[in-house]
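Hey team,

Sharing the ABC transmembrane type-1 domain-containing protein run so nobody has to redo it. Sequence (341 residues) first:
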Amino acid sequence: MQVLLLLPLLLLPLLLLLLLVLLLVVLLLLLLLLVLLLLLPLLLPLLLLLLLLLLPLLLRLLLPLLLLLLLLLLLPLLLLLLLLLLLLLLLLLLLLLLLLLLLLLLPLLLLLLLLLPLLPLLPLLLLLLPLLLLLPLLLLLLLLLLLLPLLLLLLLLLLLLLLLLPLLLLLLLPLLLLLPLLLPLLLLLLLLLLLLLLLLLLLLPLLLLLPLLLLLLLPLLLLLLLLLLLPLLLLLLLLPLLLLLLLLLLLPLLLLLLLLLLPLLLLLLLLLLLLLPLLLLLFLLLLATTTTTTTTTTTSTTTTSTTTTTTTTTTTTTTATTTATATTTLPLLLLQLLILG
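Structure output:
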């Protein structure tokens, strides 16, 4: 008990010593921080240079860790995106299934709607249904009948070839000498024939299934053709009504436009009638001012005396002026006569 009572007294100096040590460490750290802050302007370029020098090494060391950290961070997002994509794909598949069901049901519904007026003829349609089902078989038989002459022709050609085979062998004897040269070509032809035969063998089941496919697809094709032609028929039926409606709508507009333009046309015609005499008068004035006559007078030159030559030139100039005035006054007289009426 005495030891327990003395234990706090023993621990108190230790606690005080520890507190003092911690205080000294904090003071040293603060002092170091202050020194670093004072030396920061000097150490900053060195630190940057050191960082640039150590950057490749740091990248080599830290890049896998960074990639791993980034992957760990992005992994939930990637999982979430994958889940969203899966949900979207499921929704898209559901929508496609619904659309497919609608597309499958729509022809049936339209067929029912189209057959509603034909309910009285339902027994007749039921009687015609086996004929419609037998129609692909009939088409196939017709095709075989059409191909039968070709088959007979091929058989005749084969018989003819068999009859002509000895002659062909005699003709082919020179070619047998060239057989080593023609062997690659013959092999190529043989390969092509084998490929054609293989293709025919592959297509044979399809040819056998063709009547069944026609049997299945013929009602759908007929319905599709009917659905495609129905809007065209409706458009052809409604086209005269649409044209008549368009004409009735445009007729008042055309009449209104004609009534609006008629006074303007009359005004333009009146202006033309008023301006016609003025234009004629301007034309005559321009004609009177622009017509000038040039009269050439021949002056006889004499070498006897200078006085006689001057008198002859004055007389010729006077005659020229009189003729010019006479010619210029003639259009003016015509203009005055037109004005006076």
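The radius of gyration is 59 Å.

Ping me if you want the raw files.
A.
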